[in-house]
Specification:
This protein is mainly alpha-helical and about 350 residues long. It is built from 14 helices and 2 strands. The chain has a two-stranded antiparallel ribbon with strand order 1-2.
Length: about 350
């Protein structure tokens, strides 16, 4: 059984990679033809960012559609084929009410909201630099989505337990609702802040999904693990074109959907307290922004040369690809540490 499920999960990842790789040229031509391009306006509030990224203005964006489009497309395709033909197609169907309804719904809703934000940016509509939604508006949307998820988990599924490593599961009652909202909002915000260099968020998300997929597999939630593996396959295909120099950017349609989905899977697997390790780079990216804003507001000075922190290292003279690769390495090590603690807490 375990060997079969492992084979199934790896096969789905390979299929997702091939499908995403095959559809990428068509989507790339579409966004180029319709001028779906990143707009970078000069701003006196972010001179360092503008200095290093002015040349990227006009690069096609909304490449995240390749990731979530592949995941949702394969989910619907295998579900339909399993109902019509049965047989082997049933083995590839990973839509499961208990395990994947919520992450699939979260992925889709966040992706659509992000796509709208990307389109506003293309049209230069909105208060953000380059167009699009302001951060406070994004946070509100994240909170609304998280609120719906929290309601579903607490009132419909009856979940109110937080797993504390080496201690056990603790019932926290209605506190589960604000905890859920915080995790989802923090994940989405952090992913959005991390998406600033070629291949950065794609790689960091890849390792986070790999850790969460491993956790889901160990917990015998095989359809959730299959969902994670399909996302990994699609991310690998996306990275094929997104590593430096990127042919296109992920856009908010990618960062919002990935960030929220990472948070949802951590709640589904009750690994909330492991998430800071599984997604360590996401955490330090968002923390750098919070620290910078707090320091400027209360002390009138900067802590970092520029934020999020990947721009700080650019300002120190690191090449963009050097920052990305080193952050990938940090992600691998932190994810391995998180998994090590997960296994220790579970089996000892």
């Amino acid at each position: 059984m375990v060997i079969f499920e492992a084979t199934r999960i790896m096969a789905l990842a390979a299929i997702a990679f091939l499908v995403a790789l095959a559809v990428t040229p068509a989507w790339f031509n579409f966004i180029k033809k319709h001028h779906v391009r990143k707009q970078i306006r000069e701003s006196d509030k972010a001179p360092i960012f503008h200095k290093f990224h002015e040349k990227k203005s006009g690069t096609p964006t909304a490449g995240g559609v390749i990731i979530w489009g592949t995941v949702l497309g394969l989910a619907l395709l295998f579900s339909l084929l399993s109902k019509i033909f049965g047989g082997i197609f049933q083995q590839f169907n990973f839509i499961n009410r208990a395990e994947t309804y919520l992450p699939l719904a979260a992925l889709f809703l966040a992706a659509i909201l992000g796509l709208i934000d990307d389109w506003l940016g293309v049209l230069r509509i909105g208060g953000a630099s380059g167009g699009g939604l302001k951060i406070r508006h994004k946070l509100l949307l994240y909170a609304l989505l998280a609120g719906v998820g929290a309601w579903w988990f607490y009132f419909r599924l009856g979940w109110d337990v937080l797993y504390v490593p080496f201690v056990g599961s603790i019932a926290i009652g209605a506190w589960y609702i604000p905890l859920f909202i915080f995790i989802i909002v923090a994940s989405a915000f952090s992913a959005n802040e991390t998406d600033g260099l070629d291949g950065l968020l794609g790689g960091v998300s890849l390792f986070a999904f790999a850790a969460l997929t491993t956790v889901a597999f160990v917990l015998n939630r095989y359809d959730l693990a299959a969902f994670g593996s399909v996302t990994i396959g699609a991310l690998l295909a996306f990275l094929w074109f997104n590593i430096y120099p990127a042919k296109f950017f992920m856009g908010d349609t990618g960062s919002m959907s990935l960030g929220i989905t990472i948070g949802v899977i951590s709640m589904l697997t009750n690994t909330t307290l492991f998430l800071p390790l599984f997604a360590f780079v996401l955490v330090i990216e968002s923390l750098s922004v919070i620290i910078q804003l707090t320091s400027k507001k209360f002390f009138g000075r900067k802590v970092f040369l520029s934020t999020p922190i990947h721009h700080h290292f650019e300002a120190l003279g690191w090449h963009e690809s050097q920052v990305t690769m080193r952050f990938w390495i940090i992600s691998v090590i932190s994810s391995m540490l998180g998994l090590s603690l997960f296994f220790l807490a579970r089996f000892f």
